[in-house]
Amino acid sequence: MGKLIYQWVSKIGMVNSVFTLYELTNGDDTEGEEFHGLEEWMLLRSLAGATGGGQGGDHDHGRQQGVKFF
Hints:
This protein has about 70 residues and is α+β, with helices and mostly antiparallel strands. Helices cover about 40% and strands about 20% of the residues. The chain has helices at about 1-10, 20-25, 40-50; strands spanning about 20, 55-60, 65-70. The chain has a 3-stranded antiparallel beta sheet. Helix 1 (about 1-10) packs across helix 3 (about 40-50). It is globular. The relative contact order is 0.27. The model has no long low-confidence stretch (mean pLDDT about 85).
């Protein structure tokens, strides 16, 4: 799933951008994507695979968690 999210980020030209977890699972831009509506724990597990491969990094800004894809 992490690879799928990274492919979507690349497709929309947003590499080097930070997305909140909410944006990825509930945002208007992800509607219709396979990962839209994913529970937070599952998204975090999926992103752990992507960030472990050097494609992203975790960000924690107060109450909102996010990820930056690079």
